[in-house]
Amino acid sequence: MNIQKKRWKMPSAYTVLLGIILVVAVLSWIIPAGTYETDPDGTIIAGTYQVVERNPQGLLDVFMAPIKGMIGTETTPGAIEVSLFILFIGGFLGVVSQTKALNAGITQIVKRNKGKEKMLIPILMAVFLLGGTTFGMAEETMAFYPLIIPVMVAVGFDVIVAIAVVLLGSGIGVLASTVNPFATGVASQTLGITPGDGIFWRLLLLGVLYLVAVFYVYRYAAKVKTDPTSSLMHGIETEELDDPTSASEVSSITKQQKRVLGLFIFTFLLMVIGLIPWSSINENWTFFETFHQWLISIPFSQAILGQQSAPLGTWYFEEITLLFFVMSIVVGLVARLSEKEIVSHFFEGARDFLGVALVVGVARGIQVVMNEGMITATVLHWGEQSLAGLSPVLFIIFTYIFYLPMAILIPSTSGLAAATIGIMGPLGEFVGVPDHLVITAYQSASGLVNLITPTSGVVMGALALGNIPLTKWWKFTGKLVAVIFIVTCIVLSIGVLVS
After folding, report:
1. Is 402 left (phi over 0), alpha (psi -120 to 50) or beta?
2. Which of 3, 328, 409, 492 is at a distance of 20 to 30 A from 447, taking alpha carbons?
């Protein structure tokens, strides 16, 4: 009788996070309880730690933690506003996806560059990079591999080039997320800063790593075109796909889809402008506040804008959630979708992001148990003592390294942020490292790991489409990963030194 052994599979993010909550609850019986004094703004004052009476957490507290993590407590801000935003951006993407505007736009880029496919490498990588850095484009890229693979193979490249254009393009974007709500947004909300704080360093990292990745992929592509036997896939059969850029299969992008693409770009551009704290960067940059004051002074304008409207540069999750809600309706109307279709596709898109929205609340439960168990301050105190003689540069580099294995344990960027940033941010403050650089270190490490980890469904799905063995992908990306690691450490170090 043949009994096949079941292969061990990595538990879901929910199970991992619930397990961490249980471990933290057990630690609340072991670790001494303590508190810090805070200033009027609620910021912890270093050196004011004192031991207090224990408040150990029980099994009921473990299962209650994700619920409290979502709605919030006196000591832990709730994740409901960021979870709601995630659902609304999912709804927006659901409506946009129904118009096929993104697919048509990518298809037209490929079609117009037929015969000069080498230029597709920087162009397409830039497109996917923008998707990754603004809204965490990852699973959404799966639809584009069947489009890109045959084009790249037909002109003398190999499937690794095709996969790299999409996977590395979007992956570098996520790694250097500028306003990605699932990475930067969740982490910023946890520390009480705006996603626009520290955006300069993330933009710098984004630009440098884009150039590095394009050069790396372009160099390999040119090498394969010159000598096909130098391909890492030489001798490995790959499934042939039809060339989707033939005139019979590609229809021109419609005027309606062009309008939708314009609205799509406008929405994310407006979000970026709204989140960047312009007057904090330069006290003279008050043009948006001035314009807003003029706007609401116009008679009857408040009937449209209301009393609670905020000027660009001061937006937070309420405002950007409203933005995506309104633009979902606008896109639907421009695409001439019926009311029923707009609502239906909005909810379909929101449903696709429900898991991400819930994992934020579950992860926030870790902070709930630590705070209500009164051990957060003790952990910070230990960190304060151990990091007392550590320079800010060493701290930020160690933080980056710390997040590399953590990203394997918790592959969800939003889950990882909600679970750990609440601890690492205050530790950074003790040694003079700004919160926004701790966030950059976390998302850079998470993004780097998610370019190569077998626990990522995006990585394994992309490699399966290209019939690329994981070891071949590791061999291809090995040197690039090393360069990314070094470049990130340099940018983080410079950021600490000039902050």
Report:
1. alpha
2. 328
Rg (CA), the chain: 24
- In a domain? residue 301: no
Tens-place pLDDT, residues 371-393: 899 887 887 778 767 766 789 99
Contact 196, 156 (CB under 8 A): no
User: Degrees (nearest 5) of the Cα angle 468, 469, 471?
Assistant: 130
End-to-end CA distance of the chain: 67
Which residues on neighbouring strands pair with residue 38, listed in sequence order?
44
**CB neighbour list of residue 291: distance below 8 Å, 6 or more residues apart:** 311
Distance CA 182, CA 329 (A): 22
Q: Which residues of the chain have pLDDT under 70?
A: 1-10, 12-13, 39, 41-44, 46, 113-115, 117, 139-140, 143, 237-251, 280-282, 306-308, 384, 387-388, 409-411, 419, 455, 457
Classify residue 446: in a domain, yes or no. yes
User: What's the domain count of the chain?
Assistant: 1
